[in-house]
Design goal:
8 strands; eight-stranded mixed β-sheet; about 250 residues; alpha+beta; L-fuculose-1-phosphate Aldolase; single chain; binds zinc ion
Length: about 250
């Protein structure tokens, strides 16, 4: 990808993120790798839905600004660390999509294997511990799972998604937010039916090469066991009984 293409890709993905409500005001940041030594990134403090190609900043691998009148995004450290650790990654999007960020605030990872297409492409979306935005704490928070995942929830903050290209990183963001919306609706309906271990195994045969980096995830694998299904029923029953008792005790 040349610099001209990278500038246009960042403008395009910034606009799509803003129009979909994945970022508000001047939130969020995107970048793409130009070469082993060069990265193009969004500027700090600008609305990502209103960028022009010349607003894009070009930096070296250490974060030194080489082109662009503005400062690079305040989360540039996160982007640079990911490019160092993951030579396969060509694009990164950090956003605050409302439903997935709600899960991040509730500190609940998107960990159930419930949607075949998500299982086959993203796997689970782990929750990174809280880190102060714009500091080196953020890349440190995702480091333990950086090699095995392409999408992360940042506790009380938002999402980070990676791809071979910037558009792939954006598509991962779309999938994460839709996955969060579906999980939220299923929780509201009161029942989440997870895929069984067999279902997941079959899926990896149907979509060879599309499997995520470490399928199946440990959480889903455990959830798919019959025992945990029984536990969930028990928990629901216990909650129901407790609520009944509390209601009965109300003056
Ligand atoms: Zn953020």
């Amino acid at each position: 990808m040349n610099i001209w293409q990278a500038r246009n890709a960042i403008v395009d993905i910034g606009r799509r993120c803003y129009e979909r409500g994945f970022v508000a005001a001047t939130d969020g940041n995107m970048s793409c790798r130009l070469s082993n030594r060069l990265v193009a990134a969004t500027p700090a403090g600008m609305c990502k839905g209103r960028l022009e190609p010349e607003d894009v900043v070009v930096l070296d691998a250490n974060g030194k600004r080489l082109e662009g009148a503005r400062e690079a995004s305040s989360e540039i450290l996160l982007h640079l660390e990911i490019y160092k650790e993951r030579p396969d990654v060509g694009g990164i999007v950090h956003a605050h999509p409302p439903t997935a960020t709600g899960f991040a605030v509730a500190r609940m990872p998107l960990a159930e294997c419930v949607l075949p297409e998500v299982v086959a492409t993203l796997g689970d979306v782990p929750l990174a511990p809280y880190a102060t935005p714009s500091t080196a704490e953020v890349p440190e928070s995702i480091r333990p799972q950086l090699r095995s995942h392409n999408a992360f929830l940042l506790a009380n903050h938002g999402t980070v998604t990676l791809g071979e290209t910037l558009e792939e990183a954006y598509f991962a963001l779309e999938k994460v937010e839709q996955f969060a919306q579906v999980l939220l609706v299923a929780r509201q309906l009161g029942r989440i039916s997870v895929l069984t271990r067999d279902d997941v195994a079959k899926l990896t045969q149907v979509t060879p090469g599309k499997a995520p980096l470490d399928l199946p995830c440990q959480v889903c694998d455990a959830d798919a066991s019959p025992e945990s299904g029984v536990d969930e029923e028990l928990v629901r029953e216990a909650v129901r009984l407790t609520m009944e008792r509390l209601r009965a005790e109300e003056p």
